[in-house]
Amino acid sequence: MEEDLILKKADLILSNGIKLREGFDLPVKYSISTAGPSVGKRNIIIESGEFSVKVPVVEESDFELIHNKSSLSVCHCNRPFLDDVRLQNVRFHAPKQAFFNISQNCKMGCRFCSTTIMGRSDYPTPERIADMIREPVVKGEVKSVSFTGSINRDVQQSVDELTSFIREIHSNYPELPIGVECYVESESQIIQLKESGASEIKINIECATSEIMQIMCPKKDHNLVISMLEKAVSIFGKGKVCSNLIYGLGESDKDLFDVLDMLSSKGVMTNLRAVRMNDSVSEMLKSSFKKIPVNTSERAVSLLRYQEKIFTKYNLDPNTMDTMCFPCGCCDLIPFFLS
Q1: Where does residue 325 rank: exposed (0-12), middle (13-18), buried (19+ CB within 10 A)?
Q2: What does the pLDDT average to over 253-270?
Q3: What is the structure's pLDDT at 339?
Q4: How many angstroms separate the CA atoms of 267 and 232, rounded?
Q5: Strands 97-101 and 144-148
Q6: What does 12-57 look like in DSSP terms, one character per residue?
Q7: Which residues share a beta bridge with 56?
Q8: Nearest CA to 249 among 149, 113, 118, 55?
Q9: Closest to 205 measured CA to CA, from 183, 190, 186
């Protein structure tokens, strides 16, 4: 039963989205992400039993959300898939979190990232965000806050901008966990973010090998990221440092296993994320590989099981994180989430 449910979540994660029957009156507001796998799309968060999954609403899909009198269900190819599902109403990107992208004008050019397509310019100030979350925090609807941002001019400018937001929230809500997702180039930048009030940090390794990194993120340094993650553990502590590792970019399972083992041994919790295909990613993979890699639900679950084994080996628990992707769990398969 557990394995079946995990496979179904993987099916939804790897799908192109879900369609709504004509005339369907959606009982929640769409969540429109400015960062992450579902950037720029109209998304809904479906809750079934013990898991939640974020899926974009699209015109054509094998998955369909059905309203059955007093309940909702999901069908796949016109057959029952999930019964009695619920929709989560999310105000700030993630359930029980406020996750803000403070800028999108990025110069790094990662091939799988679509953040820059939004073209947004009306970013809230630190003071405005502190005011926006006041009522949800008081009501207990927001339990943590996280910030990410792009690199417009240089890395230090990005760190300085994130610092100003973190400092404002920490001064207004000193007990609230604050996470930061960023690219850094020095130990001093990590210390700066920690001292401003961040309690957790995510520095993304992105790719399983430096060779794939050179293709997909040519302006990032694979070895530097590993070094910064190691320093982050010494500053933030074990259980408070994580990193996204994207799969489906031509790497082998062994490549992924090696990175998982290496980062886990350093106290870093790696979050496995299936690449979300768009035209840019598809063209890049076509030009880089003889055959475009295909992610399957079976591979996703197999990787999850190895991830759980490695986390157990190094005494890592996603529940030690209060912010960002692990406690949200809507875009990925999370270790032990049904244990």
Answers
A1: buried
A2: 97
A3: 47
A4: 10
A5: parallel
A6: HHHSS-BEE-TT---SSPPEE-SSSTTTTSEEEEEEETTEEEEEEB
A7: 43
A8: 113
A9: 183
Element (H, E) at 270: strand 269-274
Residue 202: alpha-carbon gap to chain centroid: 10
Q: Above 80 in pLDDT, residue 114?
A: no
Query: 119: helix, coil or strand?
Result: coil
Among 2-16, 89-103, 164-178, 193-207, which stretch is predicted with the lowest mean pLDDT? 89-103
| Residue 172 near residue 130, CB atoms below 8 Å | yes
DSSP 42: E
Which are the contacts of 315, defined by CB distance < 8 A and separation ≥ 6? none
Helix 2-14 / helix 297-313 crossing angle, nearest 10 deg: 120
Kind of pairing, strands 200-202 and 178-181? parallel
Token pair, residue 328, equals 């949200």
pLDDT tens digits, 149-199 = 888 889 999 999 999 999 999 999 999 999 999 999 999 999 999 999 999
Location of structure tokens 């957790």: 200
CA distance 157 to 167: 15
Which of 266, 284, 262 minimizes the C-alpha distance to 275? Answer: 284
**CA separation (Å) from 306 to 33, 192, 247, 259, 314?**
30, 34, 14, 12, 13
Which two structure tokens, joined as six digits, stand for 144? Answer: 């943590």
Q: Model pTM?
A: 0.90
